[in-house]
Amino acid sequence: MTEPLPWKIVRGNRKHEPLFREFKCALSDVLWETEVEDHIRDSLVEWAFGSAAAEVDSRILLLALRESGELLAVSAYERSDSLSDGDGIIPSVCLSLIAVSCDWQGATIGDDHRVSNVIMDATAREIAREFPNHAVWCRVHQQNGRSLSFVGRHGFTTRLASLSRPNYVALTSTTD
To answer: What is the pLDDT of residues 101-143, one digit of tens each?
Structure first.
């Protein structure tokens, strides 16, 4: 029998701000790690719940709460009007970030449940429930091999040249 995971996934809100301010996910001082950590600590609450958020349906999922309230991982996404097929806008969702705390990166619990996979799977289910029939895309620093491998394992393999930025590649899933 599979044991229940020793954490729960909850929708983030402003009361979680103290957890974000203390969140550490950068294992080194490379740009793509520190900018995610800085964003979570300094501006994620405003991004998700500020006045601009109501216009784009920004959301946060937390994979937190061991009973101690420890924040293990953060996932953030938003509805996007950025994808186009040449004939018009394709309904889509931008997966803005998936971040796992330093202490839990690569960790498994129970039946080999990796924290990163659990938060990604929960995020995918939430996006599918909330935004059915929307394409999902993400942007990853081109030198961030770990994140490129991670999103690739979750089906993000098709490059989107129109959404790529200097040093960042945009990817979408090829699955339905």
So the answer is: 999 898 887 777 788 998 899 999 999 998 999 999 999 999 9
In a domain, residue 2? The reply is no
Output the pTM of the full model.
Answer: 0.87
- 91-95 contacts: CB < 8 A, separation 24 or more? 91/131, 91/133, 91/134, 91/135, 92/134, 92/135, 92/136, 92/137, 92/172, 93/127, 93/131, 93/134, 93/135, 93/136, 93/137, 94/136, 94/137, 94/138, 94/139, 95/123, 95/127, 95/136, 95/137, 95/138
Q: Quickly count: other Cβ atoms within 10 Å of residue 31's Cβ.
A: 13
User: Which contacts (CB < 8 Å, 24+ apart) does range 88-92 have?
Assistant: 90/135, 91/131, 91/133, 91/134, 91/135, 92/134, 92/135, 92/136, 92/137, 92/172
136: domain CATH number is 3.40.630.30
Count how many domains the chain has.
Answer: 1
pLDDT tens per residue across span 46-94? 888 887 776 666 666 655 667 788 898 999 998 887 787 777 788 899 9
